[in-house]
Specification:
Oligomer: heterodimer
Distance between the termini of chain A: 42 Å
Distance between the termini of chain B: 42 Å
Structural class of chain A: mainly beta
Number of helices of chain A: 0
Radius of gyration of chain B: 24 Å
Helix content of chain A: under 10%
Order of helices and strands of chain B: EEEEEEEEEEEEE
Structural class of chain B: mainly beta
Number of strands of chain B: 13
Shape of chain A: elongated
Helix content of chain B: under 10%
Largest interface: A-B, 61 and 68 residues
Number of helices of chain B: 0
Number of strands of chain A: 13
Largest sheet of chain B: 5 strands, antiparallel
Strand content of chain B: 35-45%
Chain lengths: 173, 176
């Protein structure tokens, strides 16, 4: 039997013995307790993380490097890759590219997760972030991420100072 | 509405708003992500959630030979628990050479660090390259605000040392 309440209902204490169905978006921050014992456990939420790589200083000339930057502990999803130059290359053909690559557990074969590398050249502006276009986003536990920065060119001034972020969501451990 | 009223109905549907002035007691697992508001003013605040974080350390490049190092890698901002420590190396050591990874902890005001593991994570020629190896056990993984973590890498044996290492420390931490 179904009992419908067609007007707003106010109750002091409501105990639901079986299934509690709330409409989408019905529960907001204010409804959630802030007591330390009531916090949402990390095991009950996906976690957004930002992996950051940067040059040693904001005036360090950007140079070629390949470095591991993340190791997945659980399944995850890549959300965004962004490169921000402090000082972009100027005056010639000196430039650098940024790529993010992935390899599965047990494999040393890294493949790009981007449709193309993010290129920073004299056509780019200081302090202006540029996003990469992700083509591979699904990650599994044990996957490893690597950054490859490739500097090239011979004329002008190479960029100095750079920050790269990889925003991802990961399941709880 | 009167007090102490039982609704002996298999399904009760509230067609309009439902306001509960006191406690709402619902079966475990009743609330799913879809129930949560996602707009900026109503989404779950970070202060109401325990946060999972991954602290990552890696060699300067993937072609860098592993070497002993002691380096600070984390400062706990709230009460936390270390969930896992893992170590992946791209090229294994040879012969009897091995590389050992440990995580040490010290309290605020103390420079006395002690391992949080039951043993170091060792990668040697008998392991598998590019495959993460987990800690043999976390024995001192409870952190309080102000606790500091150090990565301690040591080596032993003879042969060629491994190349390109990545260490992660997964922890859950109370909000700031």
């Amino acid at each position: 039997m179904t009992t419908n309440f067609r007007d707003p209902v106010e109750i002091d204490t409501l105990t639901v013995g079986s299934t509690f169905n709330a409409p989408p978006l019905a529960i907001d921050n204010a409804a959630f307790s802030s007591a330390s014992t009531d916090r949402l456990a990390s095991s009950k939420a996906d976690h957004q993380k930002t992996v950051t790589w940067q040059t040693a200083t904001t005036s360090t000339t950007v140079a070629t490097v390949t470095q591991s930057i993340y190791l997945f502990n659980a399944a995850g999803t890549l959300e965004k890759v962004t490169v921000r130059p402090d000082t972009a290359p100027t005056g010639g053909d000196l430039q650098y590219t940024v790529d993010i690559l992935k390899a599965a557990s047990g494999s040393g074969s890294f493949a790009s997760v981007l449709s193309s590398v993010v290129t920073m050249s004299s056509a780019d502006s200081d302090n202006t972030a540029e996003d990469g276009s992700l083509t591979t986003t699904a990650m599994t536990a044990g996957d490893c991420l690597e950054i490859i920065i490739t500097a090239s060119g011979s004329t002008g001034t190479q960029g100095a100072g750079a920050t790269v972020i990889v925003v991802l969501t990961e399941e709880p451990s | 509405m009167t007090t102490g009223t039982d609704f002996d109905a298999s399904v009760a549907v509230v067609m309009d708003d439902l306001s509960v002035r006191g406690k709402l007691v619902i079966p475990a697992g009743s609330i799913t992500s879809a129930n949560w508001a996602s707009n900026a003013s109503k989404r779950l605040g970070s202060e109401k959630k325990q946060h999972q974080k991954t602290v990552t350390w890696s060699t300067a490049t993937t072609a860098t030979t592993m070497a002993p190092v002691t380096q600070g890698i984390y400062l706990a901002n709230g009460a936390a628990t270390i969930e896992q420590v893992s170590f992946r190396i791209e090229t294994l050591p040879t012969s009897s050479k091995q590389i050992e990874v440990d995580i040490h902890k010290a309290s605020a005001g103390s420079g006395s660090y002690a391992s949080v593991q039951s043993g170091t994570i060792n990668q040697s020629s008998s392991d598998t390259a590019s495959t993460a190896k987990d800690s043999p056990g976390i024995t001192g993984g409870t952190l309080t605000a102000g606790d500091s973590l150090r990565l301690v890498i040591t080596e032993s044996g003879s042969g060629t040392q491994g190349i390109g290492g990545t260490v992660i420390v997964v922890l859950k931490e109370a909000p700031y």
